[in-house]
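Slide 14.
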Amino acid sequence: MRVTRKQEKIIRQALAQWQQERAITTEDHQRLAGTLTRVVFDWRRLSQYAFWTALACIVIAFGSLFSDSDLLAQILAWFAFSSVARIGLPLILAIMFFGWGFTRQHQEKQWHYSTEAILFLGVLSSAIALWQIGVMLDNGSGNIAPLFLAGSVLYGLIGYFGRSGLVWLFFLLSLANAFGAETGYMSGWGAYWLGMNYPIRFIFFGAGLLLLCFLLQPVLIKRHLFTVSKVMGLTCLFIALWIMSIFGNYDIDNWYDTSRLALLPWALLFALASGVCIGIGLKTDDSMLRRFGITFLAINLYTRYFEYFWDGLHKVVFFLVLAASLALIGRYAEKIWHLGEREMSE
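Slide 15: predicted structure.
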């Protein structure tokens, strides 16, 4: 079995412990240890990071293109003769990339990261096609939700049948954008929809996404889409709760006159959600839930610290207290780290 240096250390320590407890014989220990082959360099992780960086560079390149109005106008001018060409070219590219990606998935399953990169290019091409469709069909209403909804349907089908977590992530992002755009359009792009500002709406969106994620857990796990769905739901829920703990259900004009006491219930709800997440994570041994709960509980506490003590304390005292609290957290984490090392070495 090919393992990294860290994996080899853990496995050998486990084998030694089992031999000491007489769960396995000396011959079993030697036989199992002899099957380990250390990987000198983690090429898999390098491949992963290289493709992630390549995709990030592509995104930056397109962002730079859209920020350069002269270059963008020149490119669009090349296709100004036909709206069909502006839609058809990226659509053909999207079909080619998606077809190529699906072919590689079925024929060459070992090329995981490169296949995901190809599917991402399909996502990018289809997004450009949808953008041009929106430009062609624009009637001045400002309703862009149908475009995001069309993108979410497309990415959802491709991500599900292609078992692509990356494309499925874009499905969830498009769905979130469609929800935000539709509720914004229905409210006339005002601050409230059914009495709720945007963060409250996304609290319900994140909670609903998590509920569906766990209801459909067997299906999503089978398609390798459960983890990305759960991360997206938790991220939407907790970021929305964090924003609510700062701004409450107020628009920006009324927020400046809002007392901290009026925002306290939202901060308590944020803390309660973090505590529930930690509790469920501990009960079910779900490390993701634990980490989300602990991380956002810490964010909540430090947000309240800045909120309540920034004006009331001298800045010297403020930052000394902040430094001391961070040092205590670091020391506690260090103790846990050393305790784990000692347990593994015994």
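Speaker note: Strands lie at 2-3, 37-38.
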